[in-house]
Design goal:
By secondary structure, the chain is an alpha/beta fold. Helix content is 39%, strand content 17%.
Length: 345
């Protein structure tokens, strides 16, 4: 079976990214799914390999196909400042932000050139990215610009398995991204809600082979309670839902977010459209913190990521959990067309 080539970016070297990449690399199932390629500072990755005691050899390469990967050999496309390995663990540093930025740019370039099949990213630190002079709220917006994409979305995806009852898993797409809550409310629009419903529909339909059921969150408590707690439901969200239904999308909403997430867990919906970051993130992470995968929708390339941050408080202590990285790789391979939906390790 052809295995897709997937670039694994190391993320912020001061965080847990290098460690979870090294730990995931040692998992045999990863190599059954794909041919991985590390992208980032090789010296940092060697330190992470030593920390986890995997004994893999990190080999610097100039091209994705220069060295065959295995659990014992890690081909690494070098990028980042020369002295980035001197950044202390858990420190916000522009050099670390620059290394993370260069890794994403390099991996995206390879994907756009079709020299790799997908990207799975370890977490970067947004303030470190800013200190390096790159004004992006996160991976999602950076990748959208690199790919020339205007209509995109952040989605958290949980594959099939407990506690979910849907055999397709659960996708949660966010209308607004990394922005202050008051700004998220201010920019919410009918067109953006509908656009994210379409992206959720396209993603889950591609996985399921049939039309998914999508629950659309309300913004306000109790879905606004008939306008007592806000009118965004009647003024913005409901019209977007009606337009989507007219296009053939199986939408329900706006529905109170607290009970909607329970209904989605119990199998009533394959996807949920959340209005803002924490409305979707908190519920998904409670359902499966280390199984959740971040997928960027709307790109011409496949990009997945862990659903957690740099965890500076745990960085370089040898205790970081790599499961979300393993899941990100698995889903990237699935989206590259190689694995069945339920192909969990």
């Amino acid at each position: 079976m052809h295995r897709p080539r997937i670039a694994l970016t190391l993320g912020d070297p001061a965080g847990i990214g290098p460690e979870i990449v090294a730990a995931a690399w040692a998992r045999p199932e990863v190599h059954a799914w794909c041919r991985p390629l590390a992208v980032g500072p090789p010296r940092v990755l060697r330190r992470a390999v030593a920390l986890r005691g995997t004994r893999a050899q990190v080999v610097e390469v100039d091209a994705p196909d220069q060295v065959d990967p295995s659990t014992d050999v890690i081909p690494c496309l070098a990028c980042g400042p020369e002295d980035v390995d001197r950044v202390p663990a858990g420190l916000i540093d522009g050099r670390a932000g620059q290394a993370a930025y260069e890794a994403v740019v390099a991996a995206a370039g390879l994907a756009l050139q079709r020299r790799i099949d997908a990207i799975a990213t370890a977490p970067l630190h947004k303030e470190a990215l800013y200190r390096a002079g790159h004004v992006y709220p996160g991976h999602t917006e950076l990748l959208a610009e690199l790919c020339g994409t205007r209509q995109f979305a952040m989605m958290l995806y949980l594959g099939p398995g407990e506690p979910l009852r849907s055999p397709a898993g659960l996708a949660v797409v966010h209308v607004t991204l990394h922005t202050a809550l008051r700004q998220a409310v201010a920019v919410l629009s009918e067109d953006e809600v509908l656009a994210k419903c379409r992206l959720a529909h396209q993603f889950m339909q591609s996985l399921m082979g049939q039309t998914p059921r999508i629950g659309v969150c309300a913004l306000n408590p109790h879905a606004g309670e008939g306008g007592l707690f806000g009118d965004e439901e009647s003024r913005i969200i409901a019209p977007a839902v009606r337009r989507g239904q007219a296009e053939g999308l199986r939408l329900q909403g706006p529905l109170p977010a607290d009970t909607l997430m329970v209904r989605a867990r119990d199998g009533e919906f394959e996807a949920v459209v959340a209005m803002y970051h924490d409305q979707g993130h908190i519920a998904v992470k409670l359902l499966g913190m280390y199984r959740a995968v971040n997928v960027t929708l709307g790109l011409p390339i496949v990009r997945t990521s862990v659903a957690h941050g740099t965890a500076f408080d745990r960085a370089w202590q040898g205790c970081a959990d790599e499961q979300s990285m393993v899941e990100a790789i698995r889903v990237a391979a699935r989206l590259a067309g190689q694995l069945p939906l339920a192909g969990r390790p």
